[in-house]
Each structure stands twice: as structure tokens, then as C-alpha cells.
Write the C-alpha cells for this entry.
Amino acid sequence: MVKKKRLTVEVDGEFTEVEFESDKDTLIFHAPGRAIAKLRPIKQDEGVYLGLINNRPHLFRWESNGTFTILQTSEAIYHARVHRGTLTGEKAVQPGGEVVVRAPMSGIVVKVLKGDGEFVSRETGVVIIEAMKMQNEVYAPVDGVVDRVFVKEGDSVKPGMALFKVRQRKE
Amino acid sequence: MFKRVLIANRGEIAVRIIRTLREMGIESVVVYSDADATSLHVLRADYAYHLGPSMPEASYLDMERIVAIAKESHSDAIHPGYGFLSENPEFARLCEREGIVFIGPTPGSMQLMGNKVEARNVAKKVGVPVIPGTEHGLTDAEIAYKEAKEIGFPVLLKAQMGGGGKGMRIVRKESEFKSLFNLATNEAKNAFGDGRIYVEKFIENPRHVEIQILADTHGNVIALGERDCSVQRRHQKVIEESPSPFLTEKTRKEMMEAAVALIRESGYTNAGTVEFLVTPDQNFYFLEVNARLQVEHPVTEMRFNIDIVREQILIAMGHRLSLSEKVEPSGHAIEARIYAEDPYNDFYPSPGQINFLLEPGGAGIRVDSGVYQGFTVPVEYDPILSKVIAWGTTREESLLRLKRAIKEYVILGIQTNLPLHQYLLENERFVSGDYDTNILSDLVLSKPKADLPILASIFKNNRSRFKVSEKKPRGSDWKRVTLPKYIEDEPW
């Protein structure tokens, strides 16, 4: 079974979760939308590539400045980065449904802010994870009720591990 | 016939002049600064001489050095292009003294047209309307106020020593005049070392329309139609077209006659452009004469099927105008200026290396380019890269062709104003032809959102760059998740 990769892509400060698999020179995207992309170098030394995305041609150029990948299309220049792990997002939730929020990075749970059964609104912090001396608050993506918190203070977490589940309030 | 001509310029205009010289069997000599050592105009020329360091003062503005190279290279004449030394009477005189023909107007004509007050006097003499205003720069607010009342509000305050849009202020209310005048005086003193201020009638929603003229040394003057240059961003022209979609035939005829009369009266020779402001009710006012070849001259060339540089050279050699006065234009032409600027970042200059270049082509498309793939656009000069001119039998056809050409144009490695042209060619006001110089005044272009093609391009073949973010993913960052637009719009 081909393993799908899940990443968070940051472009000009905006984050998008991407799920894809790769096969030789082809990338098959499952999220954000299904697409098949083939990338061929035109001028490899200059980072210029031709991309066929669902058979539509696009010209790109990229270079790295150490922190960012600087990306140019015919429209504009973008600054991009790839992050390991996924982020929480509304797209994972159906109204009235449940969403499991997962750890975006490795770290240690330093605080659990909300308990089972507590009401939360969107962007309320539920768990704080510390990684590399930085603290990251992981929040509820929707209004609802904390169904279950799976971790406790002191637990070590890895990317993708379930932290808590939120049941969305029905509209 | 000249055997050899030196081009005292660079970039796209130098390349363009080389083309005419070659067609006329005249050898081209170019000059280059350090930054331009491998510039396109060097690659194309017959001879190339090093000028000096990149800064304009040390290179393309160094009169003595340029004339010295002209003599060393045995050049008969110098073509100054536009900008740089093209309207510098001292340079024209230096050429004269050294026995080198200057391809352009005489030093006297240049001087006359360079003096705005003198030029206005010539216009008034031949009955060409001028913008009502004070003849001299003023320093006394009382006197200025009296003049302003006579002119009629709203008025424009212009620093006498200012230029290019600097040191200008609009006064709409009589009560504000004195305080704004004093402010303007102080600003001008600080910025230009001279606090004198003109008071001029302010024309609302004007169009900028100019007439191309050619005059030989035998008394023949012709006007070659108009160019509408109202599409400007901070007083810098972006798109020019001919004919003007606004002018009536009557106004066009009157403006052309006015331009010819002015040029005849002043004794001006060679190529020049008479600039006017046109009000919404078809009244026109003389602005100034540009005593040189202009950036947007190809627009006129495409309509009249002529070579203005060739005419300039023939005039400089003493020939009569080869064009009859009855020369008729055909079709419609539009030019887009392509600049190395970032349209999403206040049009900040974007120098650097062009890593990938695909220029447009096809029917009715002319590209005057000064760059090539691999060239590093220098930071020291005007950021113009090229011009794309589209010709069509109708305005609509030329618009469609230009739009197509802009879409074809790929420049990677630096940022360009191509997105601005894409915007303009879809802009209702521009497409309808009903626009004035305010068309770009409130423009803020927003960068298109990253979407799947962009995301895909982040992944080189199979290998992605993984980097755990040092940046603390604060709650606020994670909030800014935007679903890519196409999820709603397009079925994959």
C-alpha cells in the first residue's frame, strides 16, 4: 500500500494541509483536492520547472533562501515552507459531527486546559504542548463540547497523535 | 550618409536604434557601464566601448567621456535615445563643437523647450491655449492669492524647480490658499533649494494626449497623429495608445494644427512631441514639448508604417522629410511598458537575474526588448525591460492581441508589472476607452492566493523539504486556514 504523506504547507503565512503520495515523477494529491501533478525540469540549474497539474501546464521557478522556498509563477512570487504534521481545520468536521484534533509536532503536554464535557468555542485553547522550549496552544477548531481528552500533563506526543475530540454543536 | 553612429544610451532603446542603423547600412557604436558589460545592446552592436562604473553620473551621463569615445571610434553622429543626455543642451553643444552631429533638435531649440515659461510664450503667440497660470514662480502669498482668484479655483501649486510630479499641491478652497501656499513654499525650499511656486488652474479628470511631430531643416513640419498616455501610475506612463479613444475628429485636427504651428514658430527641428491636457469637454491646453524621441514612439510607427528613428537620422543628415503630409494612419496600436517592479509591493523596483524568459509573438505584435534570459537587470537605471506593442485593424482587435501577448509573456527570476497589465486589459474603464489620468489612482493589486499548482510546485519531484518550523505556531497562525478557492469552484 502506498503511504500517503501529510504535510502542512505555509505560503505567505497561510497554512494549508496537504495529503499526497508520490510515484516516480508523479505526485497524486488527495487533499486539498484530487489532482495529478507531474513536474519536469526545464532549466534545472535555475530551478525552472514545467508542471502538468491535471494536464494543465504551469511554469514555476523556485529557489531557497535557507528558511523559505521562494516560488515564482506567472502570477507572483511566494514564500513557502513545509511543516511536518497536520493542523486542525474546519474541513475535518461535519456539522453535528466529531473532530479529532491531533498533535502538530512532537513535544510534551505541559497543560490541559479543558476537561471532558466542557463547552468550548472555536479557537479556545484545549491543550498546551511544549517543543524545543516553545509552547504551542492547540485549540478547538469548532464550537462544541470536549468529548474526550486523550492526554495528560507530562505525556510525550508525536505528530499525528490524537490529543482530544470535540463534538460540534448542532446548528 | 553617416558611416557610423554612436548611441549614447542603453537597454531597449539602444537595441531599437541599432536595428534602424543596421537597416540603413550604418555601423552602430554603443557604450556600456560595468553593470551593462553583457547587456543586449552590447551583444547586438557593431562596436562596444566601456564607459565606466555603473552609476549614471559615471557612465551614461558622462558627456566628455561619451564624446571622447565618439571621436575614438570615428563616429559621425550621436543618437541620444530618451532620458540621460537627450535633452541636455550642453551635451548637444559639446557635440557641435567637436564636429559630431547630434541626432535631435538644436541646442537652442532644446533650451527653449526646456524653459517652460518660454515654451508657453511661443504657444500663446500662435494662439495655442495654455493652462491659465502665473508666468513666474512667486514667493508672496498675497500676490499669489490674487493671481489664484483671477485664474479661478481649484488651482495647482507647482514648485518652479520641481518636476516629475514632485512639489505639487491642489488647493480647492479659497480659505485654504494662503496656508497651503506657505507650506508649499517651505517644502520647495527644502526639497529643491528654491521656494518659488507657480499657480496654475487645476484641470479635473484630464486626459494626457500628445502629438508626434517631425520637422526637417527645410521648413517642413508634419504631425503624425496623437497618442493617449492617460494611463499613468504616479505620473509614470504605463500604457499608451493611438488613436485616442476619447478625442473627436475635430479636436484631433485642432490639436495637430496647434502642434504644427507651435513647432513652426519655434524653429524646432527633428523629432519631438507636443504634450497637451484635454478636459472632459474636449478643451485642450498646451503642457510642454518633449524635445526628444519618446519611449512610446512605436505606437505611432505601427499606425503610420514609418520608422521615426530613420526619419531622425535623415533629418540630421540634412534631408527633406521623406513623408508626404498626406500620410494616412491605419488601424489602432497600444503599447504596454514592461517594468522590473513588484506590483504587489507598491511597485518597488525588482532588479536581479532573469532566469527564464519567453517573449510573445504572433500577428500584430512587436516586442522592443532590452533583456534576454540570463541577463541581470541592474539596479542603477530605469527599470524598463521592454515594450509590447499590439496593432489591430480596430481598437478591439489590438486589445485582444495585447491581452494575448501579455499572457504569453513569461519572465521568471524577477518580479514584473505584467500582472498590472493583465488587470488593465480586463478593467472595464480601460476596455471601454472611457478613462482619464485618475484610472490607477486608487489601485492596490492583491496577490492571487496560492492554490494547488503552487502547492505542487513546492515538491521537487519526490523529495520535499521538511523543516520543522522554528516559528512558534501561535493560535492566531493556525486560525488563518483558508480553503483553496477551487474546492468550491472546480470538480477535480
Notes: Chain A touches chain B through 69 residues (CB under 8 Å).
